[in-house]
Amino acid sequence: MSTPQTLEAGPGTDRPRGRGRYALRWRGLRLVTSLELRQRLRSKRWYVALAVWTLVMMGIGALGLGPTLYSAQWEDVGPIAAMVFSLQMILVLFAMLLVVPALSAGSINGDRTAGTLATLQASLLSPAEIVLGKLLAGFLTGLAFLVLALPSLVPIALLGSIGIL
Amino acid sequence: MTQSTPADGPPPPLPPVDHASPQRAPGPEGPGIVAEHVSRAFGSVQAVADLSFTAPRGAVTALVGPNGCGKSTLMLMLASLLAPDSGRVLVGGVDPAEDSAAVRAQVGWMPDQFGAWDSLRVAEVLEVMGRAYFLPSAQLRGRVDELLELLDLVPLAQQPAHVLSRGQKQRLGLARALVHDPQVLVLDEPASGLDPASRRRLLQVVRSRAADGATVLVSSHILGELEEMADHVVFMDGGRAVDASSLRDLAARPRPWRISSLHHQALVEALDQLQVRHGGVVAGDRTTSGHAEAVVELPDDATAARLLADLTAAGARIIGFGPTTGRLEAAYLASDAAQREGAL
C-alpha cells in the first residue's frame, strides 16, 4: 500500500479562478478536449470513417483526372484539375461543417445518455469549459478530414496551378 | 501491490486534501445539509414538495422512502445540478443558487445510475475526475493510487471501464465521488449491486468519512445495511419528509419480536401466564427453524429485555429472541408509504 500523502494546494495556476457558468480556464478546456479526443482515438469506427474518407477523396481525384491525364493534351489538364480541386474543397468544407457541430452535439447528447455529462457538470468544470472543450475537440477532429485530404488535394492543386491565395 | 481482502481489516482512512481553495465553503459550525421548504416539479409531476430536513456534520443520515418519492431529485439539488422551484438548500452553509462552484467543490455525488467513459481505463477515469476538480497535478497520481487501494480496484486499474461488472462500477463511482476529499457525500443507492464483501467495505468507508467530520447522506432500499451505516434517518413520501429520527431513538418505537422455543407447550403456557398478546404459537414442525415460534409486538427494547427475562423465568425454554426486522425496516413498514400497494 502506498504511503498516504497529504494533498496540498498547488501553485496558483492550479487553482480554479473563474466562477460561474462562463468561467473559462485553460486546464478545464484542455481536460474536456483531451477526454473527447482520447475516446475518439480509441474508437475503431473513427478509423473506419477516416479510411473511407481518404479513399473517397483519392477516388474523386483519380476518377476526375485519370481519363484526362490518359487521353487529353497536357494543356487541358490544368482547368480540369482546378475543377476537381474545387469539388474536393467543397466536400472538405461540407464535411467539416457537418462534422464539427454534429460531433460536438452528438458528444454532449451521448454523454447525457451515458450519464457522464452529469458527472462533469457536478465537478468544478464550468458549462462553458464543457461545451467549448467538446467544440474544440470536434474542430480538431474535423481538421483530421482536411489533413487526410491533403495527399489528394495538393497534387491536384499543383496540376491546376492553384495558388495558396 | 497485492490485493487486500476485507479480512485484512478496515481500510486506512483517506488523507485529507488541503485545497485551501478560496471556494471552500464557510461555516464549519451548523448542519452539513439543510433543506428549507424545498419544492421541485417536472411538468405536472411534483417530485419534491415543501421538503425540510437537516443532516448533521460528522454523521451518516439515511434517506428512506418508496420509489418515486423524490430522493434522487433532492440529491440532484444538493449536487447543484437542479435548482429548486421554491425554498432553498444549504450545503455547508452555502446556497448552490448563489455559489454553485463552492458547493460543487465540497460535494462528492454518487448517482444511482451513472456511466463511466467506457474506453478509458479505471485509473484514467479517476485521473480525469481529479483534474475536473483541479487537484494539484503533482499529487494526483498518489491520490488515484490511494483510492484504488481503498475501494479494492487495484487489479482493475488498467482495465477499460466497459469490462467492469455493476458492482465494480459502483466501487469506481464511489472512488470518483471521493477523489477531491469532499466534506459532503451524497450517495444515491451506493450498495446496489455490491457483493457482501464490497458492502462491508462501503460501510467502513462511509463510517470513516463521517468520523472525519464529513456530512454523509445516503439513500438506499437495503434497510438492513442502512441501519448499520446510519446515525439518523429521514423518511420521505410524496416528495415530503414525513418523519425523521436518530437510529437510537428508533429503538423506542414498537416493532415485532420473534420468540423461538425448544418446547411448543412451554412457550404457550409462559405467554399465557404473562398475559402477552400474540398471534399464536406456531409448532416447530411448521417453522423453518424447527422450533416453536411466536411473534409479539413490543413497544421498545427495554420491554423486550424484560419479557425475555420473564419468559426464561417462566420456563419457556427460549432458544431465540430477537426483532423480526431491523429498527429502520420496522419504522418504515409502520409508515403510510409502506402500507400503500407497490411501495418499495
Structure write-up:
The complex is a heterodimer of chains A (165) and B (344). Chain A has 165 residues and is mostly helical. Chain A has one domain. Chain A is built from five helices and one strand. Mean pLDDT of chain A is 80; it is low at 1-18. In chain B, a hairpin with a 2-residue loop joins strand 9 and strand 10. The two termini of chain B are 42 Å apart. The model of chain B is unreliable at 1-8 and 17-27 (pLDDT under 50). At the A-B interface, strand 1, helix 1 and helix 4 of A face strand 1, helix 2, helix 3 and helix 4 of B.
Overall outline of chain A: elongated
Q: What amount of the residues of chain A lies in strands?
A: under 5%
**With helices defined by DSSP (H or I, 4 residues minimum), what is the helix count of chain B?**
12
Assign the CATH superfamily of the largest domain in chain B.
P-loop containing nucleotide triphosphate hydrolases
Which topology of the largest domain in chain B does CATH recognise?
Answer: Rossmann fold
Question: Features of this protein?
Answer:
heterodimer; A: 165 residues; mainly alpha; 5 helices; 75% helix; 1% strand; elongated; disordered N terminus; B: 344 residues; alpha/beta; Rossmann fold; Alpha-Beta Plaits; six-stranded mixed β-sheet; three-stranded antiparallel β-sheet; 13 strands; 33% helix; globular
Please outline the helices and strands.
The complex is a heterodimer of chains A (about 160) and B (about 350).
Chain A: E1 7-8, H1 26-41, H2 44-71, H3 74-114, H4 116-121, H5 127-159
Chain B: E1 17-18, E2 33-42, E3 45-55, E4 59-64, H1 71-78, E5 86-91, H2 100-106, E6 107-110, H3 122-132, H4 137-150, H5 166-178, E7 184-188, H6 196-211, E8 215-219, H7 223-229, E9 232-237, E10 240-246, H8 247-250, E11 255-261, H9 264-273, E12 292-298, H10 301-313, E13 318-323, H11 327-333, H12 336-339
Parallel strand pairs in B: 4-8, 4-9, 6-7, 7-8
Antiparallel strand pairs in B: 2-3, 2-5, 9-10, 11-12, 11-13
Helix pairs in contact in B: 3-4
